[in-house]
Amino acid sequence: MSLQVFMLPDLGEGLVEAELVTWLVAEGDTVHVDQPIAEVETAKSVVEVPSPFEGTVATLHGAEGDTLEVGKPLISVSAPGAAVPAAAAQAPSPDVAAAPSSGVGAASGSGNVLIGYGTPGHGGPGRTRPSRRSHLRQEPAEVAAGAAPQRRVHLVVSPLVRKMAHDSGLALADIPGSGADGLILRRDVEAAMAQAVTPAVAPALAPVPAPAGPGSAAVDPRTGLRVLARTPLTGVKKAAAIALSRSRREIPEATVWVDVDATALVELRAGMKAKDGTAPGILAFVARFVTAGLARFPQLNTQLVSAEGADTVVEFDGINLGFAAQTDRGLVVPVLRNAQGRSARALDTAIRDLAKTARDGKAGPAELSGGTFTVNNYGVFGVDGSAAIINHPEAAMLGLGRIVDKPWVVDGELCVRKMTELTLAFDHRACDGAVAAGFLRFIADAMENPAAALADL
């Protein structure tokens, strides 16, 4: 058949659904192999989905904001030169192949989509994605008499612009672009946001009238208060909610903590910065001490697996160190793989790069999964401690509080020192309290005497 249906692929790590953020094509548009057709948000990241087919878009199976299941239709594409059947476009028959390997499908595209790498077997080695603008500028040679004009795709290059529009509830198709060829720029979205907000200012200042009757507004039965909004959890926040609930439900965690005099570490870093102009961050030093501590206490770098009624502790040859990071999309944990043996400077560079990638929304499943131990620097939020929830299915998480001046006794004398608090939450099935306390004490000692610790590493 001439109609090709592209099913939403598994975008990595066994994900079962994705939220449709933005359509990059419209029904009636001409698409080419490897041309991005949509942006979808998974529990891991926002990714572009390229088309495995060439032809004319017959049906978009979903609206922006919808949650789509993996394996269900994403887009239907009519083969080049074939008419778009209206009935088939609305309800493709079961015998339509999702990704044919021969016939029309083979001529139009490979059907074997690898997210981020395009489709193989389309002319030559490497990626050959055509220019997005070149496709968007194409106009049909002639329009059939009486046919509706083809809707032109909105020109957007920056993922930031798309995200701003999506987060503000604006449709890109309704925003006029001021850039070259109608390109939608950041200032265009900001102007549209201002226009959307301005009319609502005056009513917002007026007092809200009381509901006219019991059916005029939803009332929460437990509190008796009027419900202002209901927001479903999606994407990263939904994944985090599932993981956190599972951790609390399955892991019998215990917590140990200790006050740490970090004065020597702060002074060491200040001296390095004064001498060389740069120095690793405190978090990088802590990460270096963590990898050394896990080598001495490997029970904390494990995973407990329950299957068929039996519990098994899995030990790893290496350390994949996760770092909790707050982003606009929610809490994520980018993972630095094989962190063992790296210097504090190398760890500092890697941590900064990972954090930037995650906050820019560019981290994929490979960067946001596979951790064996997590460090949570909640001190950046100005707090001293936290009863952390272990990042399931790991065995432990180390928390680092803020560093502040506090009175402390040193050699029998009361003085002001740079103090912080370390907290370790651990799975009590994976290790005993003595192991957890020994690991935490090792990190604390290294922070209080960093020169000696680094000399031995």
Give the name of the CATH architecture of the largest domain.
Answer: 2-Layer Sandwich
What is the CATH level 1 assignment of the largest domain? Alpha Beta
Specify the number of helices.
Answer: 12
Round the Cα radius of gyration to an integer and report it.
27 Å
CATH topology of the largest domain: Chloramphenicol Acetyltransferase
Question: How would you sum up the major sheet?
Answer: 7 strands, mixed
EC number: 2.3.1.-
Pfam family, one: E3_binding
Enzyme class: transferase
Keywords: Acyltransferase, Lipoyl, Transferase
Describe this structure in words.
There is one protein chain. This protein has 457 residues and is an alpha+beta fold. It has two domains: 3-153, OB fold (Dihydrolipoamide Acetyltransferase, E2P), CATH 2.40.50.100; 236-456, Chloramphenicol Acetyltransferase (2-Layer Sandwich), CATH 3.30.559. Helix content is 28%, strand content 23%. It contains twelve helices and 19 strands. It has helices spanning 86-90, 103-108, 132-137, 159-167, 186-197, 201-205, 235-250, 263-276, 282-296, 344-359, 433-448, 450-456, and strands at residues 3-7, 17-23, 30-31, 36-41, 46-50, 55-60, 67-69, 73-78, 253-261, 302-307, 310-315, 321-323, 325-327, 330-332, 335-336, 373-376, 396-400, 404-410, 413-427. Helix 11 packs across helix 12 (450-456). It is elongated. The protein starts with a strand and ends with a helix. The relative contact order is 0.11. Belongs to the 2-oxoacid dehydrogenase family. Residues 3-78 form the Lipoyl-binding domain. Residues 115-148 are annotated as: Disordered.
